[in-house]
């Protein structure tokens, strides 16, 4: 009999999955990209926000529009730690209080507030708490303690965050989707893995065994993961990624990968990263290539295995090519899907509890979470 799943994909305000995701800190931007004086419009969870960095250095997330006559605040000016609307100068603090209305009578400003949200910066990313009530403690991951390098990327992808999460915990897809890729170099595609998984305090521990090597990674509720990632030239990193919905069928993968490389090794790593950036800039954008493949104009196997975005293109074909609005309960899952199945069960259990007013599990990230590469 088909399983009945809640809707994991609709994320707007009021949707069940959207309400659940809003109960956790979510990354919204890369820290170093947000300069003082340059506010940014941000769309996350099917909702718009204004992000800016005050002159004191702190980042703030407030409502998207000025309550006077609705101009987007993202074109405003940063004055001190406040944001001034471009249209008629109404000025708001990072906590949403209207502080000045140059064209109005005194006393009016005190009565005007806009929405504002708690913000913190960690691992090179700006996180916001977009839910109701007080923000929960930030889930600290100690692999960053003493890390040599943190590498951030924000990659927009026009497919549902949940498809990407499922792909991320689907170990057998390596042997097919990434058959022609850098994973060949390290023998990861040679053997079919045996899979296991277990629910943990933070989500799911998953292992994939190939011969006598074990690859161990973590899925953290509700939408992030820690695993080992291999790249041409750069070698292995700790791959930490949040899959943050933009809309129902789009998301940004926010990455904060880290490696313990220092000194000359770190320099070589940076050089490899720069080289990859240059090669990427000379090629068609990865998403365009995915779209061409899905339109039949190219085949995934036409892409050179050393393309800097080969893995993302291949994953993009696998995720974007899925029937987007299908009922997941109709999928014919098997033993190779046990990790995907567990993620669905965890999500379904929590969404059902949220819908019915039941108790939600309080996820906790323990100290010392590590991965093994398994090759
Ligand atoms: S619309 Fe913002 S001050 Fe008038
Ligand atoms: Fe993949």
Run of helices and strands: HEEEEEEEEEEEEHEEEEEEHHHH
The secondary-structure class comes to: alpha+beta
CATH topology heading of the largest domain = Naphthalene 1,2-dioxygenase Alpha Subunit, Chain A, domain 1
Ions, cofactors and other ligands present here are:
FE2/S2 (inorganic) cluster, fe (ii) ion
Q: Report the CATH architecture of the largest domain.
A: Alpha-Beta Complex
| Poorly predicted regions | none
Q: What number is the mean pLDDT?
A: 93
Q: Quickly count the helices.
A: 6
Largest β sheet strand count, sense and barrel closure:
7 strands, antiparallel
Give the N-terminus to C-terminus distance in angstroms. 38 Å
Helices and strands in order, then pairings?
Layout: H1 16-21, E1 26-30, E2 40-44, E3 47-53, E4 59-62, E5 77-79, E6 82-84, E7 91-92, E8 98-100, E9 116-117, E10 119-122, E11 125-128, E12 149-157, H2 161-168, E13 194-199, E14 203-210, E15 213-220, E16 224-231, E17 235-247, E18 250-259, H3 263-281, H4 286-294, H5 310-320, H6 338-356
Antiparallel strand pairs: 1-11, 2-3, 3-4, 4-9, 5-6, 6-7, 7-8, 10-11, 12-18, 13-14, 14-15, 15-16, 16-17, 17-18
Bound molecules: FE2/S2 (inorganic) cluster and fe (ii) ion.
Fe (ii) ion binds at residues 167, 173, 177-178, 311, 315.
């Amino acid at each position: 009999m088909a399983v009945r799943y809640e809707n994991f994909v609709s994320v707007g305000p009021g949707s069940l999955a959207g309400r659940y995701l809003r109960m956790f800190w979510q990354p919204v931007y890369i820290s170093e990209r947000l300069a003082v004086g340059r506010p940014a419009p941000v769309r996350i969870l099917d909702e718009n926000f204004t992000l800016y960095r005050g002159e004191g250095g702190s980042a703030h997330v407030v409502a998207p529009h000025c309550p006077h006559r609705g101009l987007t605040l993202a074109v405003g000016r940063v004055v001190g730690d406040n944001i001034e609307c471009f249209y008629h100068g109404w000025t708001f603090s990072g906590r949403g209080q209207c502080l000045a209305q140059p064209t109005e009578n005194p006393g009016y400003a005190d009565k005007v507030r806009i929405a504002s949200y708690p913000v913190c910066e960690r691992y090179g990313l700006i996180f916001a708490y977009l839910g109701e009530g007080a923000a929960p403690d930030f889930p600290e991951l100690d692999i960053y303690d003493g890390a040599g390098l943190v590498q951030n990327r924000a990659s927009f992808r026009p497919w549902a965050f949940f498809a990407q999460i499922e792909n991320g915990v689907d170990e057998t897809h390596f042997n097919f989707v990434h058959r022609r890729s850098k994973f060949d170099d390290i023998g990861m595609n040679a053997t079919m893995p045996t899979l296991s998984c277990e629910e943990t305090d933070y989500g799911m521990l998953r292992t994939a065994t190939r011969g006598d090597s074990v690859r161990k990674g973590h899925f953290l509720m509700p939408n992030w993961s820690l695993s080992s990632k291999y790249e041409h030239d750069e070698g292995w990193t700790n791959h930490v990624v949040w899959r943050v919905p933009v809309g129902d069928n789009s998301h940004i993968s926010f990455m904060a990968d880290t490696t313990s490389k220092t000194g000359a090794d770190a320099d070589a790593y940076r050089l490899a990263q720069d080289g990859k950036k240059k090669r990427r800039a000379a090629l068609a954008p990865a998403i365009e290539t995915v779209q061409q493949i899905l339109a039949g104009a190219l085949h995934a196997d036409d892409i050179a295995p050393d393309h800097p975005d080969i893995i993302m293109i291949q994953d993009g074909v696998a995720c974007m090519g899925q029937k987007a609005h299908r009922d997941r309960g109709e999928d014919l899952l098997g033993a190779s899907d046990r990790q995907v199945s567990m993620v669905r069960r965890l999500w379904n259990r929590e969404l059902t509890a949220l819908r019915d007013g039941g108790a939600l599990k309080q996820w906790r990230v323990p100290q010392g979470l590590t991965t093994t590469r398994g090759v």
